[in-house]
Amino acid sequence: MTSGEMVVREPGAAIAAAAGAAITEEDFGVTWRVAGAFAASGMFGDKVSAEQAFAKILIGRSLGLGPAQAMLGIHLVKGKPQVSAVTMGMFLRAHGYDYRIRAHDNERCRIEFFEGKASEGGESLGFSEFTAEDAKRAGLDKPSRNGEPSNHVRFPRNMSFSRAMSNGVKWYAPDATAGIPVYGEGELEQEAERTQLVNGERGGVLPAGPADVEAVERVRAALEAGVDETVQLAHDGEAEELPEKLDEREQEPGDVEDGLDERERERRRHIEADRELAEEG
């Protein structure tokens, strides 16, 4: 092969080769230099470090993406990859799958998935649908923490397409993403917001499954009322009973002190020390 020739390979084969190949020492060095150049360019945000760029490029490599595709198409949220619905569609077709959008408006998106090309009689694997009712049930129509309308309210067609596509890829074509769980645009930010501690000093674990918005509000109200709790909501969104206030439940000696956070214990120690000094004086 001369220097001017170009090797053309089927997309699926290229992705399989990239995903299955172990990274060599030479690859590591080249990838690290590319990551450093991306980070230093400032084109991907001032806070992107070479290490972060390197991680994105390696994840993209496993998915069959080039360095630039990985930097532009993959967003890591709490260590999990989030990609656009269009990129997921590319994964499908590169691995011998196909899809057709059967319904798409502000109320729902319904996608049919195929093994093989749909236009050539590929086998239908099933449907994935995401509706406005699904978004409402999951609390995705609620304002964000800063009071702004959610993306599902502002861009219902885009967000329903993203959710229907990401679910369909997980259900019918997990090998299209090399077995890596991949999430749609906005999906992980919404999960992260729901699972954050609702109070900086005291709080609990908010729903990890479909959001129980009413339960979240009960937790927030309970915290504001002074409830001592470590609230664990069930994964399926059903909330457990909130514990009663400390002064209204039976306690063994030491329970109250054991339940205090470190700052409160330190504050009490200072108060006690000041009281002892005052008595000595």
Summary of the model, kept short:
The chain is 46% helix and 12% strand. The chain contains 12 helices and 5 strands. The chain has helices spanning 11-20, 25-41, 50-62, 67-73, 85-94, 132-137, 151-154, 156-172, 187-195, 213-224, 255-259, 262-280, and strands spanning 74-77, 80-83, 97-104, 108-115, 123-131.
Parts with pLDDT < 50 across at least 5 consecutive residues: 1-20, 194-213, 227-259
- In percent, how much strand structure appears in the residues? 5-15%
Computed structural class: alpha+beta
For the residues shown, what is the average pLDDT? 74
Give the biggest beta sheet.
3 strands, antiparallel
Work out the number of β strands.
5
Into how many domains do the coordinates divide? Answer: 4
Total number of helices: 12
What is the approximate shape?
Answer: flat
Q: How many whole angstroms does the radius of gyration measure?
A: 26 Å
Biggest β-sheet: strands ordered side by side in the sheet: 3-4-5
